[in-house]
């Protein structure tokens, strides 16, 4: 093989010349090499050209190009020997690949696309994944913290300016690194500083205002009430809606309110008092009804004071009705029906202009049926009296309950001097009155017969 001769320019700065005897390669005294330049060299290798194509370094394999450096893209320094960057020339895009396939591209606007050639946002990551389980397959983005200590984080920080202190942070706190457990935390900054505002713990509990939620949704506020507020529809704006409010009172316990927002005025409609002792129902800011811990329902405001053992108490503050029942027909209609495990035992029925009070009397409800005895004798033992009611001095006529109880107990409830006042159903003495009249009529008929016999003798 014949040797190739390289023309050498002998001067203070030796070099290699081209066919035109112009210096093509320069080697200075510092052993810096310049190609296409004779100016002062300050790098180990400098290449200068009048076009992007001729400024490239091309690497070939079997005469086939497989790598370029230079031209419109290349590896450049930023002035610091340790700072190296890949760049694309003005109007061009920079692509990175592996295994013969493009993996990432930075377009001329600085938008980054990974796994896709499309995308309109600053960073777009695409991954073709057929898995339908969120915990399976490959992820588009993974953040990790190899520290391995419980209580550490992986997080994303959001700033209004680069390098700022952080306006918001989305992070995962590693609660158990052995089992790979973690909880999501949402952190925001306000005028009073930054703090975690919401968490989703490993059990799926959501906490707002608390870092340790005990329930599926747990709202907490150290300094004031916690509200769950809902609004919308009707074109009325956000100042009209409904709310649930929970709060605690020192020395008392926990409260829960259910109410509405009426143009900015919060009105509680239902209030549950500490330890569930009673439930208050209000309208227009005034209590109308309460249900106490014994299951007694009191209606008509705070003055409705049920007696022991009562289930419902009414109070009428002004002229009006404690209870009104109406129907939309003038034919016979039930207003109240009473029953127990034995079935139907009574009712209150109205027709066009009358009210009927019915009590169970069907023969199928009765057994051991016997004629009533000593009606007139027992009737004569009753002691009708006139009296004044102690409450208001009203004069009235009637009976004393315990006296009637000794003669006809079916008509009287309660016990003499018992915890509850005795009561009497005057209608219950109707059978006694009927029997007494019948016995009296028998006596009258006997006397008439005797008189007629004497008159005819």
Question: What do these coordinates show?
Answer:
The protein has 457 residues and is mainly beta. The chain has three helices and 34 strands. It folds into four domains: 8-125, no CATH class; 153-325, no CATH class; 326-369, no CATH class; 375-456, no CATH class. 9% of the residues lie in helices and 39% in strands. Strand 16 (181-190) and strand 17 (193-200) form a beta hairpin. Helix 1 packs across helix 3. The longest helix has 27 residues, at 430-456.
Q: What is the strand arrangement across the widest sheet? A: 20-21-22-23-24-25-26-27
Q: Point out poorly predicted stretches.
A: 1-5, 75-84
Please give the count of helices. 3
Q: What share of the residues does DSSP label as strand, in percent?
A: 35-45%
What does the overall shape look like? rod-shaped
Quick structural overview:
With 457 residues, the protein is mainly beta. The chain has helices at 375-381, 401-407, 430-456, and strands spanning 8-9, 15-17, 23-27, 33-35, 45-47, 57-61, 64-69, 73-77, 84-88, 94-98, 101-106, 112-114, 123-125, 153-158, 168-176, 181-190, 193-200, 206-208, 217-219, 226-231, 240-249, 253-262, 265-272, 278-283, 286-292, 297-299, 312-314, 333-340, 343-350, 355-359, 385-388, 395-398, 412-413, 423-424.
């Amino acid at each position: 093989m014949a040797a190739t001769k390289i023309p050498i320019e002998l001067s203070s700065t030796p070099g290699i010349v081209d066919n035109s005897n112009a210096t093509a390669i320069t080697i200075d005294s510092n052993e810096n090499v310049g190609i296409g330049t004779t100016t002062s060299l300050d790098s180990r290798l400098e290449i200068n050209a009048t076009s992007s194509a001729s400024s490239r370094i091309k690497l070939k394999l079997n005469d086939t190009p497989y790598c370029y450096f230079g031209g419109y893209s290349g590896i450049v320094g930023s002035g610091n020997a340790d700072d190296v960057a890949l760049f694309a020339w003005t109007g061009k895009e920079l692509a990175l690949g592996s295994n013969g396939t493009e993996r990432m591209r930075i377009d001329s606007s600085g938008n980054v696309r990974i796994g896709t050639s499309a995308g309109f946002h600053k960073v777009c990551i695409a991954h073709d994944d057929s898995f339908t389980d969120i915990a399976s397959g490959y992820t588009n983005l993974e953040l990790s913290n190899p520290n391995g200590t419980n209580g550490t984080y992986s997080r994303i920080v959001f700033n209004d300016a680069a390098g700022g202190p952080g306006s918001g942070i989305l992070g995962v706190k590693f609660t158990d690194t052995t089992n790979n457990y973690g909880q999501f935390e949402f952190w925001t900054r306000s005028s009073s500083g930054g703090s975690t505002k919401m968490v989703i713990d490993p059990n799926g509990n959501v906490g707002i205002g608390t870092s340790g939620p005990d329930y599926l949704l747990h709202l907490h506020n150290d300094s004031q009430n916690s509200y769950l507020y809902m609004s919308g529809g009707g074109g009325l704006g956000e100042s009209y809606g409904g709310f649930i409010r929970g709060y605690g009172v020192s020395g008392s316990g926990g409260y829960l309110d259910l109410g509405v927002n009426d143009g900015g005025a919060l009105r509680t409609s239902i209030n549950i008092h500490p330890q569930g002792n009673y439930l208050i129902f209000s309208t227009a800011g005034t209590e109308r009804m309460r249900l106490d811990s014994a299951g007694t329902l009191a209606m008509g405001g705070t003055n409705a004071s049920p007696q022991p053992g009562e289930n419902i108490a009414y109070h009428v503050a002004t002229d009006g009705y404690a209870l009104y029942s109406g129907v939309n027909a003038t034919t016979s209609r039930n207003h109240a029906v009473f029953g127990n495990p034995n079935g139907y035992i009574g009712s209150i029925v109205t027709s066009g202009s009358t009210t009927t009070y019915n009590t169970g009397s069907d023969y199928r409800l009765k057994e051991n049926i016997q004629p009533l005895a000593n009606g007139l004798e027992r009737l004569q033992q009753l002691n009708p009296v006139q009296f004044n009611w102690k409450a208001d001095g009203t004069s009235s006529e009637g009976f004393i309950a315990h006296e009637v109880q000794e003669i006809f107990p079916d008509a009287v409830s309660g016990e003499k001097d018992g915890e509850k006042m005795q009561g009497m159903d005057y209608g219950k003495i109707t059978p006694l009155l009927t029997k007494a009249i019948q016995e009296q009529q028998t006596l009258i008929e006997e006397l008439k017969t005797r008189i007629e016999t004497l008159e005819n003798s």
